[in-house]
Amino acid sequence: MANHLKNEHSPYLQQHAHNPVDWYPWGEEAFKKAKKEHKPIFLSIGYSSCHWCHVMERESFENKQTAKILNEHFVSIKVDREERPDIDRHFQGVYQLINSRPGGWPASIFLTEELKPFYAATYIPPEPRYGMISFESLLEAIAQKYHSEKELLVQKAEEILTFLSPKIDKIQATKLDESIMDRFLNQAKQLFDYQDGGFNQAPKFPQASILDLLLDLYVLTKDTEALSMSTASLLSMAKGGLYDRVEGGFCRYSTDNQWLVPHFEKMTYDNALLAEVYLKAYYITQNNFYKTIAFDTLDFMLKKMSQNGLFYSASDADTEGEEGKYFVYTYEEALKSFKKANIPSNEHAKLLALLHITKEGNFEGKNIIRIEDPQNLNISFYGDAIGALKKRREKHTYPFIDKKVIVSWNAMMIKVLFKAGRIDRRYLKVATDSLDRLLDSMYIHSQLFHSTLMDKKPKIHAFLEDYAFLGDALIEAYKSTLDERYLITATKLANNAIEKYYAQGKWKFSRGEFETNADIYDSSYPSSVSTMLSVLLGLSSLVDIVYKKFVFKTLELNSYDVMRQPISAPKMSHMTIRYLKDDLIIKANKEILTTYIDKLDGIPYPFALFKNDLNNGFMLCNSSSSFGHEDNFDQIINYANITQAR
Question: Lowest mean pLDDT: which of 231-240, 363-372, 470-479, 509-518?
Fold first, then answer.
């Protein structure tokens, strides 16, 4: 029998609609029940492609005995963290405060009937392990304590909320200057894994924001180590594992230092951000390897992860309850695939060695396809072998795809499609069509929404990240088309965001039911504050200098943290450097500029923009003044070289 999630749109909530746990969605019905029956609330937050969310569901939420305890003593609420990032942000903050470390998913939060949190965990095992008691034992202990010592729990919850929302903010400011570049580079060098690329040790995340800034710092400083750290990481990540060498696309993160064994879910934001970094590496190095990885990633997303111009949020790590099942091969399966593709038998051993396929396997007795030198694929029958392995996958069940449309994540993908369209025009039409579809479906009567299920009417209103990333994509659309309608819409969104979320240099991520602060630190993807600053810097150069005052106030407020530890907030550090160096604005009439759009990314200065103007020839400016007039584009390249050296 279905529970109270049966009418929800979220695929994640639908996954739990037939659990024996009497789940409720977040809302008044659940809150009223808790108050009426004087029961604590068990809040479980996760997402559809989360491996450990599936594990806890199988072990506990599908267990009738566990469900009986939950149904008898608690009101249980399920939240999709992708659908409600405001709720998730709030309770991740609760978890960190209680446990003195970052949280994760599934998030398991216990609240009083008045919605005050008093205990927080992530995955909880069904039996005692990992130094934890069993989930059932924990439930029984909390139920008993809530009945006999409720006042103590309420007092603890009050203390947590007091610490979570301090009345006085301590603000320290320091001078913003270009020493941030050396500081960032030095910190990156300290954290860099010189053997396998990337930063820190396993689990290793791609950290696209760090790589992106390193590439720009190379252009600005000519520090060759900035380039080598970035390109070495991009090369290592493309060997196979984190990157799917059979179908393209990147998985979420690697469980080892070598980028071999990933968590196999593929997120739209990871693939958008990494494709963008690979494209930037291509522009700087002119090495086609980086372009190929970027294009293969985009082609994967367009083939498997999109519908009618919009992009799904994620595909699952698990297939039929087994992690990575779809992506891996036994030795025998690979060999049969080669034979079926009529690859000569004398080539089999070489191909098996090339692709790291062995009888023992490199992942739980099976094989993740991997290549030691992904830049050199001019090898006999390599394409045939990959084609054969791809064909074998077609017989298997593809992992579950969450067909939720999230504005911020779609905007990231659309932005990189515009960038790709400046190299290959087939992506330009895809980008413009996708942007039009996103605006038509999610920006309704000047009201922006956050997410919906594909082809459903949106209900959840936008958060700061949606305004920020959509504004960023619109400015990218202008750069690729010089169509000022995109700037008009970006300006409207920026004005709305300032009105809704900005006050004296501080930004809110959400308002309303959960008023949460927007922080400057990148998490799975760049922070919404730093992305909004990117939008405002673009608008200050292309529309009105007034937007720069919002940038300065935000940077000033966060100057101490950014200048002291820039590696911790790479996108914010990027925007600080852009603010200090300023944009190079190249003005000319649209007819002239249009012929040079495909050269924009090759200008040897990372903060260059084109702007429609009536000039014959090129007028060179920064965001506040003009420098002079150039007759041809080559002179602009020379000027850009001088500008970046300042």
Answer: 509-518
Q: Pick from 580, 578, 558: which is nearest to 569 by CA? A: 558
pTM of this prediction?
0.95
Give the 3-state secondary structure of 482-523: CCHHHHHHHHHHHHHHHHHHEECCEEEEECCCCCEECCCCCC
The type of residue at 493 is L
Question: Measured on CA atoms in the order 394, 400, 405, 408, is the torsion positive or negative?
Answer: negative
Within-domain flag for 630 = yes
**One domain for residues 114 and 160:** yes
Q: Which structural domain range is residue 552 located in?
A: 463-577
Please state whether 16 falls in left (phi above 0), alpha (psi between -120 and 50) or beta. Answer: alpha
Same domain, 42 and 146: yes
Question: Of 164, 183, 215, which residue sits at a domain end?
Answer: 164
What pLDDT digit, counting tens, does each position of 537-549 carry?
A: 999 999 999 999 9
- Within 335-446, strands assigned E span 401-402, 404-406, 443-444
Task: Give yes or no: residues 510 and 630 share one domain.
Answer: no
Same domain flag for 498 and 363: no
- The answer to whether residue 34 sits within a structural domain is yes
CA distance 591 to 588: 8
594, with CB counted inside 10 A (0-12, 13-18, 19+), is: middle
Reduced to 3 states (helix: H, G, I; strand: E, B; else coil), residue 608 is: strand
Q: What is the pLDDT of residues 120-162, one digit of tens each?
A: 999 999 999 878 899 999 999 999 999 998 888 888 888 877 7
Query: How many separate domains does the chain show?
Result: 4
Residue 155 has a pLDDT of 87
**Does 512 share its domain with 621?**
no
| Band of residue 194 on the pLDDT scale cut at 50, 70, 90 | very high
Where is mean pLDDT largest: 166-170, 274-278, 321-325? Answer: 274-278
Structure tokens at 194: 């010189």
Q: From CA 467, how far away is CA 526, in angstroms rounded? A: 13
Residues 571 and 596 in one domain: no
Q: Residue 557: pLDDT above 60?
A: yes
Q: Are 477 and 602 in the same domain? A: no
48 touches 12 (CB < 8 A): yes
Query: Does 228 map to a domain?
Result: no
